[in-house]
């Protein structure tokens, strides 16, 4: 970025910098999910807020610096962004308009409600999560408090995967305050069923490793149900190794299931 943006617009700038689509249509809700915060009132009330391209405003650099201009605004509904070089016959003129745009960022307290919904969706779709369908009791207020506390203590974090403006996956890195265990952290990963097979889980794992190394964490660990072959393959491909078996650690559909202990040491 050539201009110092307000912090809340940086995720939006990162989203557009990852895009190559000639045209992108985002609802106001999707834009706020990308940002993790609410848009200002002016964005809802005035089309001109989106059309601004001069100082002292800076928010427009989130898309203009990535090569996009606002083509159309339907107040309180959606915004259409178009690549500047599209009308000039640029190299991206033939780009796939349906190409996926993936953004991974740390969770903000404004993501709490969406994260609660996402966890419930993932748990309802999976046979191998700790909680089953509609079993988890979790409030937006509780999750918001957790996000704020984790940001403050620095031992743990949550990454959110945003695909085309929608929250579709998360990865929690749960660290330790005790000095003797400060070098290790546990991870919990969840991806919506309709977003699997797009490399999102691998991208989340990579971001977790980058965060861990920056924090001095050298061991990431997890447990996975022994019958969950796709997850085991994912983790082994990412460099995790099996360390043992936690026998009959879960009761799923009234049947006992074992889990593998898996871990990866970071360089």
From TrEMBL:
It comes from the Bacteria. Gene3D superfamilies: 3.40.630.30. Residues 102-267 form the N-acetyltransferase domain. Keywords: Transferase. InterPro entries: Acyl_CoA_acyltransferase, DUF7662, GNAT_dom. GO terms for molecular function: acyltransferase activity, transferring groups other than amino-acyl groups. This is RimJ/RimL family protein N-acetyltransferase.
